Structure formats: structure tokens, C-alpha cells
Amino acid sequence: MFQAYGLYGHIQANRLRSALLLAGFAVLLQALLFSLLLIWSAFLGGTFDEIVAGATRQLARLWPFAMVGALAWFVVAYFVHQSLIGLATGARSVTRAEAPKLYNALENLCISRGLPMPALQIIDTPALNAYAAGLHEGQYVVAVTRGLVDTLADDELEAVLAHELTHIRNRDTQLMVIAIIFAGIFAFFGDLAIRGWDFPYGWAPRSKSEGPLGTSSGWRSDRDDDRSSGKGSGGAILAILLAVAIILITWGVSTLIRLALSRSREYLADAGSAELTKNPDALVRALRKIESNARFDVPSRMEAFFIENPVAERVSGLFSTHPSVDERVVALKQYAGALEAPAQTSPSN
Do residues 264 and 1 touch, judged by C-beta distance below 8 A? Predict the structure, then answer.
């Protein structure tokens, strides 16, 4: 798997994945819109077939507006995502004067490969972790925790920085920002569906001229008479259950895609670190140290950005954001010739 590092083909593959993510977003967005229209139609009453037919007609009219809204979401996220990430992680920019060793290490790695220097940030926490983010040159950021700087040896810190630079070089940061934006809308409605809406079925006009809040309304149809007498209530409940199922499926699919992308890119970034530094053993030692103290408080949807999952509760398998450190060490041994060397002494503070 490591042979793909740095190749133009891998960068092109990430761009293709980004395009497919956007296409998948459009499809899932229509499914989400249809589920919301099902709920609305269910409150208007009628049989299950009538409710589905009504939601379908509304979808045919409203889908262009949903796409415009999604485009606006992406435009806003494009310009403010970096500020939001900084707020979520507590990262702050540092200068060469404030962190000379860290700054020089990152600069030397960039010079050695002709890479543009990303902004350098520090997160003031004793936890050991790091991440890279950004959509294009001028936005790229590499952030490390204070604990990482204080704990790792010089070559271990360089290996972590090389790992994060590989994410930038391979356009992983672009892919993950798009994936987070892509999953955010579905996560919002998925959370609502899991927690439950307080939508009592009894929401209904009291008369043919009275709206849901007791005001005059023209939306009442002949289906309301069926609902008020109890006819069709089973169809409405079935439609709502179908809508909730669609919401949960769209949320689950978008989440699984995001997590799968995160796992695959970590192996390649580890390979890139080994190739940049010519020292895979340093990365192995760094990962072992990070493994024992990576956790600190960040929003759960940010965990995929980091070199190791910073969220306290970690799951495995399809729902994991990262391969385990053991799996990554095995890969480094197999493909980069790493050894499980003894840890070096940490630098003095």
C-alpha cells in the first residue's frame, strides 16, 4: 500500500473521491428532503399511498431549492471552516520566535521536498496529538499539542510533522474537510431522529378554516376529514417511521464513508512520514507514546483529522476513525522496515 505515497495517481484518486463525495451528497440530500416531506405530508393526513404521492410531488418542486441551499452551505463552509476547526480544537498560531525548534523542524521538512510552508499552530493541552487541515495553499495548517512538543524526542516530533505534511501533500486535508461538510447536515438530522421529535400525531386544525395554531389557513384538504375520524392514521404513522428510517440511513451512510476515508489515509500518511524522514522507527516510537495519551476534549466529528483519535471512547471496525496503532506499526514494519525500537528519552521542558 505504501508504494502509492506521493504519486500523482494517489492525488488524482483523492480528487476523484472528493467529486464522488459531492455526487453522493446530492443523492443523499434528495433522500433526506424526501423524508422530511413525508413527515410533513403525514401531518396533513391521508392514506400511506396518498402521503407518499404528496411527498413525491413536493420533491419534484423543491429539489432545486435544496441543491441551492446545499451549495450555499458549501460556500459558507469553504470560507469559515478553518476558523471553525480552530475554535473546535483550541489551536492558536505560533511564530518562529515562540516555538523555534518546532518551527525549524517543519520548515526543514518543507524545504527538503519543495513544499509550501503551512501555518503552524499549537493546542495548549498535555495530551499528545496533531492534525493537518486546509483546502488549498494559503489555508493549510499543521497543529500539534503542547504535550506532543514537550514529550517527544526531536526525531519523533519530526516524524509526526512529516505525517501531517503528507496529508497536505496527498490532498487528504481537502478530502476530509469535504467529508466533514458532507456529513454535517445528515448528522444534524440523524441526531434529531435518534433523540426523537416531539411531533404528536394529534397536530391538526380544529375546523376547516382553522390552522394548526388556531389561525385561518387554506392548506386543509379533504384528507383532514379522514384523519380527524381516525381513518388513515396508520398510514401516517407508517410514513413517519419510513421517513425516520431514511434519515438514519442517510446519516449512517455518510458517517461510514467519512470514517472509511479517514482510516485509509492514515496508512499512506505513515508511509509518507517514513519516506520523508528515512526513519520509520521514530514514527513507531511516536505512535506508541501518542497511543497512551492522545485523548482530549474535541467535538466527535473532528476526531478524523488527528494522527490518533482524541475522543475518549474509541470503537473499532467500520465505526473507527483510525486503524489501531498495532496495525499501523505492523504496516510500518512490513513495508518500511521499521523496528519496534526502545523509546528515546523525552526532551527536557
Answer: no
| DSSP annotation string for 164-228 | HHHHHHTTHHHHHHHHHHHHHHHHHHHHHHHH-----TT---SSTTB-TTSSB-S---THHHHHH
Return d(Cα 117, Cα 51) in angstroms, integer. 56
Dihedral angle over CA of 61, 62, 64, 67, nearest 10: -160
The predicted model scores a pTM of 0.69
Q: For residue 341, tell me if it sits in a domain.
A: no
Count how many domains the chain has.
1
Residues serving a catalytic function are 164
- In tens, the pLDDT along 112-145 reads 888 889 999 999 999 999 999 988 888 899 999 9
Residue type (1 letter), 47: T
Does any domain span residue 77?
yes
Domain region containing 133: 2-197+219-336
**Would 214 be classed as within a structural domain?**
no
**Count of other CB atoms within 10 angstroms of residue 63:** 15
